[in-house]
Amino acid sequence: MLARVVENVYWLARYLERAENTARLVNVNTNLVLDLPAGFAPGWLLLVDISGGREVFDALDGRADEASSERRIVRFLIAETQNPGSIVASLRLARENARTLREVLPSEASELLNEFFDEFTRDLANGLNKRTRFEFLKHTVLSLQTLAGLLDGTMNRNDAYTFLQLGRNLERADMTSRIVDVRSAQLLPADTPELRPFDTVQWMSVLKSLSGYQMYRLRMRSRVRRADVMQFLLRDDQFPRACGFCFDAIRRALTPLPRTGEVLEMIDGARGFLAEAPLEELDQAGLHVLIDRLQLRIQAIHDGIARSYFPSRDGANGTLLVTRAREKAQSQTQRGRYSL
After folding, report:
1. Phi, psi at residue 24, to the nearest 5°?
2. Could you tell me the CA-to-CA distances from 146 to 9, 182, 242 in Å, in that order?
3. Could you give the 3-state DSSP secondary structure of residue 340?
4. Which string of DSSP letters, residue by residue, matches 149-166?
5. Within a 10 A sphere around the Cβ of 272, how many other Cβ atoms?
6. pLDDT tens-digit profile of 120-145?
7. Residue 117: which residues within 8 A CB-CB, separation 6 or more?
């Protein structure tokens, strides 16, 4: 299969997963706003920083500050066409990739993606309305999960499917770590003892944002505790959105491919890094540093996959290397808001 074909499949999977998880990220904050007592609302500007879109947001909206309105930030994350990491931009890029893959993807999947994109853009105002936002984003997540299920249930288990799995699981590990980072970035100030009773509420919200609350209770068989939630979301090998599970899935997908040695070493390194992390001892700042280092390892895994399997920018001699120059050139298109 042509390298450019599997690259497009890889990015299709990443865009779809990115759109779904951006919806989840916004709902993390939405849930916290609903669950916390009056007078204690987490900031919204933090979501722009976590998504890596601060520079773009500042350019579009003027110098951002904590007074930046919730509506402006939600619009930026959901509907801003000039933000390459917004949900609408991710869906548009996914659809563009799907158009080049008509001979690879089931026709039903392309039709479903087109129908959902039309529905999403038609009802976009509901995503910006505070009263209807939660249900709109919930429907977005369910629609994208339906599309993922259709792809899983109808695609041949060939190279295209392998790279679909690589893109989906790498993006999923990336975004799960970012959602955990919402908490480490102190959505609730650490110096407010009156909010300590609501610490469990925050971690329950994080689990629910990943559809993981029931699976956490089933797996951990304990009440919601900070260290246990981090163990579950970062290390677990059974929950599909846990970073550990995603790394294992990437490893399995790579098994039948050639030239896997470099990437497999990176995956084993990321797994070992999480296994050795002292989760029980980490304070807020320590958890934030841990996530930053994990992000660098996720970036390295992407770089390794790109070097091994994707074509160079000019495709000279059919080489399968992605140069650093090309990586930089793709930062506002293929890689969107992330430095991956």
Report:
1. -65, -40
2. 18, 27, 20
3. coil
4. HHHHHHS-SSHHHHHHHH
5. 10
6. 999 999 999 989 998 999 999 999 99
7. 91, 92, 95
Please check whether residue 336 lies inside any domain of the structure.
no
- The domain containing residue 274 runs over which residues? 3-329
**From residue 156, how far is each of 73, 104, 162, 331 by CA, in Å?**
40, 9, 10, 31
Backbone phi, psi, residue 313, to 5°: -60, -40
Torsion of CA 70, 39, 180, 193, to 10 degrees: 160
pLDDT of residue 146: 96
Residue 265 maps to a domain: yes
Distance between CA atoms of residues 58 and 64, nearest Å: 6
List pLDDT tens digits, range 51-68: 778 888 888 876 555 555
CB 35 within 8 A of CB 114: no
State the average pLDDT over residues 155-165. Answer: 95
In a domain, 277, yes or no: yes
User: What is the C-alpha separation between 253 and 54, in angstroms, rounded?
Assistant: 34
Closest-CA residue to 234 (of 188, 282, 198): 282
Instruction: Return all residues near 299 (Cβ < 8 A) that are at least 6 apart.
Output: 339, 340
Q: Which structure tokens are listed for 217?
A: 């209770």
Q: What is the mean pLDDT of residues 241-260?
A: 95
- Name the strand (E) or helix (H) holding 207: helix 199-209
Rg, the chain, Cα only: 20
Domain count for the chain: 1
Write the pLDDT tens digit of every residue in 299-332: 999 999 999 999 754 433 332 223 222 333 333 3
The set of residues, in sequence order, having a beta carbon less than 8 Å from that of 100 and lying 6+ positions away, is 5, 8
**340 occurs within a structural domain:** no
